[in-house]
Amino acid sequence: MMYAQVHLTLPAWVHQAVKNDLPYAGDEAKIRLAVELSALNVERATGGPFGAVVFDQHDRIVSVGVNRVVPHTCSVAHAEMMAYMIAQQRMQRFRLNTDNDGHRSGSFTLATSSQPCCQCFGATVWAGIDTLLIGARAEDVEALTPFDEGPLPADWVGELERRGIAVRRDILRDQARDVLRAYGEAGVRY
């Protein structure tokens, strides 16, 4: 029998960890939540050390994501991908900042605990976000964990900015690195 659907979920603890009714004003507040999600994902043994959150123009959460690759045996279940897919389903549009008639509709931010890998970079190009906030860098991920972040264009920031996506890096980088370091030192693989 050929499978005809894919079923990906976030861990149940996410609902208690996220305050949907609060605005998260400022870049640090947004990244702090992404880093907290990454840490909880490791502590609760529900996936790898990555968290991501999509916010709307009012600084409110649209969706969250944590790494679920190993639990779901699905290589695309990265935190950013989970956050994008859930936001797109919730908004009922494949490009978050464009309505189904092709008109601009709102402004969206992705806050991620670590720089997007090559897969998540590609998804970011088409997901319809306007701002990308990043905690740890790819070199941090590769130095502190066994992960391979894959190839990116030499000027990946410039590529995103040319497409209208503002990029801000190194927000709470040390805190994001602490989660990566703890995961790497634990020797656990999920």
Automatic annotation (TrEMBL):
InterPro entries: CMP_dCMP_dom (IPR002125), Cytidine_deaminase-like (IPR016193). CDD domains: nucleoside_deaminase. Residues 25-147 form the CMP/dCMP-type deaminase domain. This is Nucleoside deaminase.
